[in-house]
Every structure is written in C-alpha cells, then in structure tokens.
Amino acid sequence: MNLGELAAIFIGVALVNNLVLSGFLGICPFLGVSRKVDMAFGMGCAVTFVITVSGVVTWAIVHGPLNWVGNAVFGDPNSLAFLKYVTFIMVIASMVQLVEMYLKKFFPSLYTAFGVFLPLITTNCAILGACLYIDMKEETQHLLNAAVYAFGGGLGFTMAITIMAGIREHIRFSDVPKPLRGAGITLLVAGMLAMAFTGFTGIGK
Amino acid sequence: MSDAEIPPLPEATPAAKPVPESRSEFLVTSAPHLAAGVSTRRVMFEVVLAMVPLFVFAVYMHHARAVVLTAATLAGCLLTEVLANAIRGRSQASLSDGSAVVTGVILAFSLPPSLPPYMAFIGGVVAIALAKAVFGGLGQNLFNPAMVGRAFLMVCFPAAMVTWAVPVPLQEIGVDATTMATPLYAAARNEAIPAMSDLFVGTVGGSLGETSALLALIGGLYLVMRRIADWRQPLGVLAAVAIFAAIAHRVNPAEYEGPLFHLSSGALMFGAFFIATDYVGAPITPRGRLIFGFGVGVLVMVIRVFGAYPEGVMFAILIMNALTPLIERWTTPVPFGGHVAAA
Known about the structure:
heterodimer; B: mainly alpha; Ammonium transporter fold; 15 helices
C-alpha cells in the first residue's frame, strides 16, 4: 500500500473504468436525475456518500464477521459467501435511509425534487457493483484501498451524471426528432460519451 | 362591449415593396445596419480553402488513396445529410451550406491512408447520422461530427485504424515495408523518431492529412487572420501541450519527448486549428474558449504520456465537447451592473 497504488486505484475507477461510462452501471439515475445540473450534482453527492460508507462497511463485514463465523462454524472462511448479497443490500439500504433523513431535515427542496429517485439509490447498481468489485478485486483487499476505490467510484459517478446533466440542459434547445426525445437521445449521448472516455484506457497502469 | 361595436380597422394600404410575411415579423430596423456578408456557406468555403494545401500534400504522399478515401467519407456524409433531410421532411438546403463537406474532409484527413474505403464511408455515415442528424442538424449538435465518426471506426475496426501505410515518397527512397510506425507510436515505445524537420513538414507515416504541421499551421493562421477561426482555442491547445511536454521532458528526458516533438506530431496542429475551432462544439464565451483549448491540450498530453493510445486529439476534443455546457455555465460573463434576479 503506497500513494502511487492508491492514485492508480482512484484514477482507474473514476476515469478509466468509470462505473457508468465503462461499466454501464447506475444507468437508471443517470437517465432519471440528469435533467438539471444542480439536481444531478446533488444526486452524485448522495451516491458518493452512500457508496463510500457502504464500500467500507461491506469490506469490514466480509473481512470480519462473515469470515470469522464461516471459519469457526464450517471451517472455511468462504462458506458464508452466499450471505454477501443480502448483507450488502441491507447496508446500502440503511445508508440510503440515513441520507434520506438528512436531506428531509436539512434540504427539503432537494428532497422533494429527488422524489422516488432518492429511495431508489438503494437499487442503484453502481453502488452494489462497487461493493462487489471491492470484494472481488485483489488490489482492494486492504481497507484503505477499498475506501479509495469506493470514493473514486462515487466521484466518477458524480462527474458522469453532472456532465450528462449539462449536456441535457444544452440540448433542450436542439430540434431532436420526436421519437428520440428524452431517453433516446440521452442514451445516444451516453454512448458517445462512453466512446470518448475509452481514450483514458491504460492510464494508471 | 360586443364585437359589433368595435370600429372596423382601416384598410391597410398596400406597401410599396411587399415584404414576405414570415420575415417581416423578425425585421427590427432601428439603425442603419451593415451586412457583414458572413454566411455559413462562406465560412465553410474558407475552411475548405484552408485545407486545400493539406489535401494536395496528402495526394503527394499517398497518391490515389487520398482521393479515394476523401471521396468515400464525402459520399457517406453527403448521402446521410440528404437522407436525414428527407426523413424529417426538410428541404435539402442544408446540403449547400458546406458543413457536411467540411465534416467529410476533416474525417478523411484523420483516417489512416490504408483504411478500406467502405470503412471510411461508414465513418462518414455515422458522423452525420449519430453526431448531427439526431440532434436536429447543424448548430444543434454537441460533439464534433468528424471526431464521433472516427471514434466509432476506432471502436469497430481497431486493427484497420492503427495500420499505417508507408507514404509513397518514402517507398521510393527505399523504405522496404508496407506499413510503418507513426512517430508518436515510436515515441511511446521509445524507438527512434524521425528528424524534427521531417516531422514538421510532414513526410512521416500517419493519418492522411494531418502529418504536416507546417501546412496545418499555415491554413490555421489563414483562418485566424480571416477571423473565421477564433485564436483562443488554438492558443489554449498549443500552450497547454507546450507546458505539459516541457515539464514531462524536464522530469525525464529519456522517457518523454520535448514540446517541439509533441507540437508537430500527430493530429495536434490540425486539431488545434481546424477541429477545436469548430463553432458548434466549443463554448461561446471567450474565456470558455480559452479553457476549452487548454483542456484539449492537457487531455491530449495526459493520453499521450500516460495512456495506452499513442494519440489523444480525438478523445480530447470529444471529452471537451461534452464539458462545453458546463464550461459555458461557469464562464458566463457578468453583465455590467451585476446579475439581475431571474424573473
């Protein structure tokens, strides 16, 4: 674990293997909450918070209780691996509850603007994806690396959704053909954005 | 008051010169105005004119291939433009503004000379269809169409897009091969790079019309002097690349080439003057244009120095295109007297 390795992990997940633009995770809020830059940025911050905390907590659960109990009861640290999905979702859901209560109390306007998309952060596959990647990848078996990975993934998501919101505010004035308006043109733009981001391939290796 | 009580309007006296209904609604004439005579068509004509030397040089370097490739991309672009207009029930007026021609030529110049013509044709189709038509035509698109076409080809035909034919003049002086490494590719692998003079003039392997930094510079300066292209984007690009390359070269001269190499290699000069200055994809604010250019330069160098791709002009332009709305948002000039609260 050194600074260079952490930087490589961070750049890798934020730019090169961006969860949205390269992994195509979290497309639902990417399309649903990207109409306004302010809202998109708010959503990005909420996701970054949830992803960072969940990434660290799920790492701790896998490396702590799951491994110990599995080892003590069944003699194999991986014997409780089937519980990962359930526990990951539980952790993510409780983090989202936390964010929801916080926003409701301190940013009621943002809370109403998000509407159903706020509780839906629970089902944002970018978050579950990041937690599973952290569990799967060799370089994130260290706690600090896992935290950096989760935080980088969240920032990458925030960047992607903010760029997309800027674009969507911009093309509001474009004469897009009727069948393509809304989700159609957004997905096309997302594809072009993904092509552009392939340029970062190989950075941080 | 009922309708019957309204006095009838006086009969309008017929105007001496009948003005078309649709135009008269927008005619605001308070002061004597001077028509600048600048039309889309004229701008595009000037851009094509500035690219003629590059095309002549491409023909000198690659003979018939240059003509065939350019014809293929042009055919793809123009046919798609016609189709898009037809599908949306529009007049074919957009065909004569020359923007599709410029897209086709820029795309052709950015392709490897040995690319099969049908791939170039597909690139032209994608450039207009995916990057322009779906947004509603010229001026409403977001990404530079030629660069989207090239990125699409890069994703679909990766092998053909990195095969570089040896230019004909080099074959004649006895380079015994059919393909060769481009200077940037050689530099990325720490192999011998061509002499700086060859690099600047453009007698090296590389894309069809981008190898000559000299001719791109001449054409670009012509555009800047004619005020067709803004000086801000090229300045930003060149400054960022020079600074970045100087620092990298200073840190590790053995690994990284100096600023002169990076400025005159690849698509940099062409991209700085012809692609980054695209009116549509770049911000409209003056400060935003400088930032846009600087961002392109930095991204080019990040990809060249740290990335797996030897060249990054295309990716850099596309990424900065995507950031343009945000840059405009941050660089909107404050009106005299401060902002007025939105109504």
